[in-house]
Specification:
single chain, mainly alpha, 5 strands, about 5% strand, globular
């Protein structure tokens, strides 16, 4: 109910943006259709996740930014700042758009101040401030809920365990290869190639300032994610299961490849060759739908993490909901399955003591319940070791309420 309308709206906005950039209705229609009917984007629109809302608000922000840069009408900078505000409440990678919009607005405000238009200059500062509301709200929310405004930043649940995060640590070339593979399978080689043509020809194209700023706007969330990966804040390994994080980069690729296609078609008069190029653009998305062995990239990527252990975690969460009688829960399971337990239990997040997700505090547990992971996966090795080494001591204080092949649910005696 949310994803599909936002998908349609994003496609229409992208069509308007590309049409404004290229003045070519066929190119705008083709690239907007290619993005909107990309099976990976459709899959995300059908899931109860916030990537589609992020895509919509980023697209709306880029559209409003382009309109404001060309008309300088206040309502468009307000729409842009409001869209960025909403995007920051969807996912963290949108946070980089806040200083970007603020710098543009403050630069304009400085120009107005020099022109002795102080009221208009102060309005620009106010409009820039709108985009910060979402981030400030998130800080306040974390402070009220957990007593720490930065709780989200140092929760282990936000980044995965060190065993997973360090798989490609210090190997940026491998990180780029994994991300390149993701982009190749999601958007196809033709879109990447056309974008490269545009970037190589950037000086010759002599693009107006507003076109460059809009494409930079669309590229920033992906580069912010890349930076987070390189410093070890985002979970990634040689297979990765967060390909969806780079869906927003499709907005940049769509606008950049549209300009690349415009340049290419301007030098190729043959309609046959143009038709062949269009068919090549469609090759990857059609293959993902038709060829079962290929599959939809993001769906295949996500399904890798939903194994027997994950299904067991979901079942444990539902069972925990039935047995829960109040008190806190120490969750010592591992990153991915821990999330599934929390979500399926439908208990408030603050019920779970995430501070025990570190080996440094394993020996100071005083919670009403403990959930321990038994299997020795890379992300839960320390917890299974803890269970084996401290089983007798724990059973003096706790009763085994439920035990499966993967987990043990302990309940404190009395």
């Amino acid at each position: 109910m949310v994803g599909i309308p936002f998908l349609v709206a994003s496609g229409l906005l992208l069509f308007s943006i590309i049409l404004s950039l290229t003045n070519s209705r066929p190119i705008a229609f083709f690239l907007a259709l290619l993005f909107g009917l990309n099976p990976n984007v459709i899959y995300i629109a059908l899931t109860p996740m916030n990537e589609m809302t992020l895509l919509f608000f980023v697209t709306l922000g880029g559209y409003a930014l382009l309109r404001w840069l060309r008309s300088e009408k206040d309502q468009w900078i307000i729409v842009c700042a409001s869209a960025v505000l909403c995007a920051t409440l969807c996912r963290y990678e949108a946070w980089i758009l806040v200083p970007f919009i603020s710098i543009i607005a403050l630069h304009k405000g400085t120009e107005l101040w020099k022109q002795d238009r102080k009221a208009a200059s102060l309005k620009m500062i106010l409009f820039a401030g709108i985009s910060w509301i979402g981030i400030v709200f998130w800080f306040i929310w974390n402070y009220v809920q957990y007593g720490d405004a930065l709780k989200f930043a140092h929760w282990t649940y936000s980044v995965g365990t060190s065993a997973v995060r360090t798989t490609l640590h210090g190997r940026p070339q491998d990180v780029f290869l994994v991300i390149g593979k993701a982009l190749l399978w999601i958007f196809g080689p033709m879109m990447l190639s056309a974008s490269m043509v545009m970037l190589i020809s950037l000086k010759k194209l002599s693009l107006p300032k507003e076109q460059i700023l809009v494409m930079l706007f669309f590229s920033l969330p992906a580069f912010f994610t890349l930076w987070a990966i390189l410093i070890g804040f985002v979970q990634i390994d040689q297979w990765w299961w967060n390909w969806r994080f780079f869906l927003t980069f499709g907005l940049f690729l769509s606008t950049a490849s549209a300009l690349g296609l415009q340049k290419l078609f301007g030098t190729i008069p043959s309609k046959t060759i143009k038709a062949f190029v269009v068919i090549c653009f469609l090759a990857i998305p059609v293959a993902q739908i038709v060829v079962s062995s290929a599959g939809v990239a993001i769906f295949n990527d996500a399904s890798k993490s939903f194994d027997g252990r994950s299904q067991s975690a979901a079942s444990l969460g539902r069972e925990m909901q039935k047995r829960y009688n109040g008190g806190s829960i120490a969750l010592l399971t591992g990153y991915g399955v821990g999330q599934r337990i929390m979500i399926s239990s439908r208990l408030p997040i603050k019920t779970f003591n995430i501070k025990y997700f570190s080996a440094d505090t394993l020996f100071t547990i005083s919670d009403t319940y403990i959930v321990l992971g038994k299997d020795r996966t890379p992300e839960s090795e320390e917890f299974s070791q803890y269970w084996l080494l401290n089983k007798e001591n724990l059973l003096r204080l706790y009763d085994v309420s439920l035990e499966t092949n993967y987990f043990v649910l302990l309940e404190r005696k009395n």
